[in-house]
Design brief:
The chain is mainly α. The protein has seven helices and two strands.
Length: 225
């Protein structure tokens, strides 16, 4: 059997982290899609879950766990950098401080909600993928991707909605926002299957195999297993 190479792992990890950071940056724009109101972050947030699926499916939960933590730390660093940059006194000839503040400076509560939702949602998504892979002996990849997104994005959406909006919006409004975002994320995952499934197969062939998490420690806080 060919020894695993993991040559593509740094590239996929980079795309995963980049999609997270970009999605949080563009989430300051809100748009309407028919009767649904969403943030522009919805464009890339589901893509991060596709990369999360690939990471766990091909490289295993332990590798995915390290990448998830990289994304969490990256998001926290990005938030701290934006807040610090906003606090710096603007040059007298630079007239864009107000625009910078409005667009790039996250509300601390929203930033906290994003980080907590990422932590909960990504680890649940990866756990479901890994466990279902063992149960199905590696079969039904598409079904496992969709199921993991339903559960993982469900947890992500609940955590974010409650932390970000509880007390600011009514329960009905939070429910409407959450259900809309959750549904669209699932649709995105389904639409991505014609791309993600062939890519998964290609990676398994070119990376020298795949990982089955039969004896993995699934604690999010253990990084060396």
């Amino acid at each position: 059997m060919t020894a695993p190479t993991h040559r593509a792992l740094p590239f996929i990890a980079g795309l995963f982290t980049a999609s997270l950071l970009i999605s949080n940056t563009i989430s300051s724009k809100i748009f309407e899609l028919g009767p649904v109101t969403l943030t522009a972050g919805i464009i890339l947030i589901p893509i991060s879950y596709v990369f999360g699926d690939l990471l766990t499916e091909v490289y295993g939960y332990a590798a995915s766990r390290k990448v998830i933590w990289s994304g969490i730390v990256g998001q926290a660093l990005m938030t701290a950098a934006y807040l610090t940059a906003d606090a710096l006194p603007p040059a007298p000839f630079w007239p864009h401080q107000e625009a910078f503040h409005e667009i790039l400076t996250p509300v601390p509560r929203i930033a906290l909600a994003s980080i907590l939702a990422l932590f909960a949602g990504e680890f649940v998504n990866s756990y479901v993928i890994a466990k279902m892979k063992v149960k199905t002996n590696g079969r039904l990849v598409g079904l496992r991707y969709v199921c993991s997104t339903i559960v993982g994005q469900g947890v992500d959406t609940v955590v974010f909605s409650l932390v970000a909006f509880f007390g600011s919006f009514s329960g009905a409004e939070i429910l409407q926002l959450g259900l809309s975002a959750w549904a669209i994320k699932i649709v995105w995952e389904c639409l991505a299957l014609p791309l993600s499934l062939p890519l998964t197969g290609w990676l398994k062939r070119h990376e020298g195999g795949e990982v089955f998490d039969r004896k993995t420690n699934f604690s999010p806080f253990v990084l060396d297993q």
